[in-house]
Amino acid sequence: MENITLLIGIVIVTALVFDFTNGFHDTANAMATTISTGALKPKTAVAMSAVLNLIGAFISVEVAATISKGLINEDSGIDPAVVLAGLVGAIIWNLLTWLAGLPSSSSHALMGGLIGATIASVGIGAVSMSAVVSKVLLPALAAPLVAGIAAMLATKLTYRITRKTEERDVAKGYRAGQIASAALVSLAHGTNDAQKTMGVITLALISGGLLGADADPPMWVIASAGIAIALGTYLGGWRIIRTMGKGLTDIRPAQGFAAQTSSAVTILASSHLGFALSTTQVCSGSIMGSGLGRKGGTVRWNTAGRMLAAWGLTLPAAGLVAAGAALLTAQGDWGVIVVTVLTVVISAAIWLASRKEPVDHTNVNDVEPVAPDTPAQLGVPPQPAVVAGVGTGTADAEAESSGPSAAAPLSSSAS
Fold it and tell me: Which tens digits make up the pLDDT trace of 135-192?
């Protein structure tokens, strides 16, 4: 029992480390467009997001129940070592995609890791494939599409409503709206993503015999998961913020407001239904939808293609890493030690590699010129950096009527 208790302790710490990486990996979901348009300064944005992530963690436990009770059959003979291996797969994939600046799904990394570790340890029969399909795969396909269409229509509507309004009034109003909608996305992110770690810790406690099979997450689990994801969010995943805020499309305040509002509604609805969807995929879909919704808007399909490839690889890649870790942890205490040491070494190596070209709040809005890859991007001039809140002299409404020849969108280079 002492060994099991020690192992569960290691699993809990590892789960909270994953939750921390989830926080900085997914900060961009709520704050990328807010930062890129200058609605909030970068450090202010991540601080607000962190607080609301923490609050959101206490709102619901429906998604946690999907992870702890629905995805893996608790009576299949899995033990905490399997959960540890699943977490290792998720952490390593999160860090690799963060290094590449790709907004992949932390949620799918976690679920892929758990599925891979479980199959390697006790067989595919221990995985509830019906839950994987209904609660994971179908939402993964539908959610970004629904959010993208909603954002596209909302963007068209906002430009239609404000087409005769002065540019400064429009920009000021939508920046205020962006702050409110970003807050809502952060709250929604806490209700969805923090719960996944709660579910994993609860699954470890159940598999170790410390909780009953139908138990909900204890309050200390909810609180620790909320704090971990909030700390990670405050650290700021600046590489991914840059990709989502500047790499997918040139975001203007009206587009940012439409994208964030669409994302928040989609995430909150799915959390209520217990769907463990990817908030990253939802927010990315919304941003692309907002780019398509503005006349003359751009979507950089080369960047979008890289993201789609990462989305498709997430489940199997995290699963393969977790399966290897599970085979090691099955060897006993020495296997658990080897897996733990390797995880620390690989994580440290990825962090050191990131220091060669650091991205932080001082340069998050700086981007290298991207060669146009769609007709909509041809003729779009480089985007100048301006002081947050000061316009470039071209109205968003003017952009709606003028198309690609309109001046570059509002942005900020806050430091």
Answer: 778 877 887 888 889 889 988 888 888 777 776 677 677 777 888 888 888 887 787 7
| Inter-residue contact 56 to 271 (CB < 8 Å) | no
Q: Taking the complete model, does pTM exceed 0.90, yes or no?
A: no
Pull the structure tokens for residue 115: 């599925």
Task: Name the DSSP letter for residue 135.
Answer: I
State the burial class of residue 279 (Cβ atoms within 10 Å of its Cβ: 0-12, 13-18, 19+): buried
SS3 call for 380: coil
How far from the centroid of its chain's Cα atoms is residue 357's Cα? 22
Q: Note whether residue 411 is domain-resident.
A: no
103 is in which domain, residue-wise?
2-405
- Between residues 335 and 239, the one the model is more confident about: 335
Distances 101 to 236, 241, 374 between C-alpha atoms, Å: 12, 8, 22
Q: CA 315 from chain center: how many Å?
A: 15
- In 3D space, the residue among 199, 196, 261, 229 whose CA is nearest the CA of residue 74 turns out to be 199
* pLDDT tens-place string over residues 56-89: 888 866 666 666 566 777 666 678 888 899 999 9
Other beta carbons within 10 Å of 164? 8
Render 292-337 in DSSP notation, one character per residue: HHSTT----HHHHHHHHHHHHHHHHHHHHHHHHHHHHHTT-HHHHH
Contact 319, 63 (CB under 8 A): no
In 3D space, the residue among 335, 344, 345 whose CA is nearest the CA of residue 79 turns out to be 335
Nearest to 359 by CA among 350, 348, 367, 369: 367
Supply 324's token pair: 């290897």
**Cα–Cα nearest to 144, from 294, 30, 256, 267:** 267
- Look at residue 72 and give its three-state secondary structure: strand
pLDDT tens digit sequence for 243-266: 777 777 777 778 888 888 888 888
Count of alpha carbons within 13 angstroms of residue 262, beta-carbon side: 34
On whether residue 227 sits in a domain, the answer given is yes
- Structure-token pair, residue 374: 């769609």
Give how many domains the chain has, as a whole number.
1
Looking at the domain assignment, is residue 199 inside a domain? yes
Q: Tokens for 319, please give them.
A: 């699963």
The pair of three-digit structure tokens given for residue 390, joined into one six-digit string: 């000061």
For residue 168, tell me if it sits in a domain: yes
Measured distance CA(290)–CA(297) in Å, rounded: 8
